[in-house]
Design a protein that fits this description.
265 residues; elongated; 14 helices; mainly alpha
Length: 265
């Protein structure tokens, strides 16, 4: 893929009738950096691509010369490859995504997946600005809300509790999911598949919320009440593993059940 990013930035800047200095000040970089971009001597940092697109009022796709549908297929393939290593080899997963970002700089989906390879709070100095960039610049609501969730979690893990609630307030409350609607309104195998996937997600959510109740009751000095919720969570896992997960198919709950099991051990 041939990049025409420098030429595009120069055209957009001139159409907006601003100097390199003014543009550089907005981005928080030197005007020499902007000059290098426009002459193709260097590329902007990947985290700046969504900001540049937002400044000019264009999509990140508009900054690059490639077919949208073809790019989406390639990005999906990169994410699927990286996902295979996310749990057991996050460094390899990150390397795959960063290689993908060289081909598709600033791609929201790749950047969103990249967040999952970074351990918090150890890498919070990278996670927080990347989340903020995605929240401000992405046009994909699912990416925005996921970045808000990760940002709030990182704030909590880094002791910035006062920032957690304002961040979570930006996420809309949703009382039903697309999978639920698909299970109810589609037919045949499509309905069954949606129901299986939703059951797995719901089961994981229930077990995790039971553990939240346990932890909060322990904090309040109510160990007996806390133990009741833990027993229910254990029973859920026992039933799941006794049935070998057949009712829920392979997927998210298998991975979540391992984490929940470690919490209970």
């Amino acid at each position: 893929m041939t990049l025409n990013l420098g030429k595009k930035i120069r055209e957009l800047r001139k159409s907006k009738n601003i100097s390199q200095e003014v543009f550089a000040q907005y981005l928080g970089v030197s005007f020499q950096a902007v000059s290098k971009w426009e002459t193709d001597a260097a590329l902007p940092d990947v985290s700046l691509i969504p900001v540049i697109a937002s400044f000019f009022g264009v999509s990140t796709d508009d900054l690059f010369d490639y077919n949208r549908l073809e790019a989406e297929r390639k990005v999906e393939a990169i994410c699927l490859e990286a996902y295979q290593y996310r749990a057991n080899d996050p460094a390899k997963s990150e390397a795959i995504l960063r290689e993908g970002l060289k081909q598709f700089p600033g791609n929201d989906i790749l950047l969103n997946n990249l967040l999952y390879t970074m351990k918090s709070p150890e890498r919070s100095d990278e996670i927080i600005p990347l989340c903020k960039t995605l929240i401000q610049c992405t046009r994909d609501d699912s990416v925005k809300y996921d970045a808000l969730r990760i940002l709030a979690k990182t704030y909590r893990q880094t002791g910035q509790q006062a920032l957690v609630e304002p961040t979570l307030e930006q996420i809309p409350e949703i009382y039903f999911s697309k999978l639920e609607l698909m299970a109810h309104l589609l037919e045949g195998e499509q309905s069954l598949d949606a129901a299986r996937r939703q059951m797995g997600l719901s089961l994981g959510d229930l077990a995790e919320m039971l553990l939240v109740m346990r932890d909060r009751l322990r904090e309040k000095g109510q160990p007996e009440e806390a133990s009741k919720y833990e027993r229910i969570a254990r029973k859920i896992l026992e039933v799941f593993h006794q049935e070998e997960g057949e009712a829920f198919e392979t997927g998210d709950f298998y991975r979540r059940s391992r984490t929940i099991g470690e919490t209970l051990s």
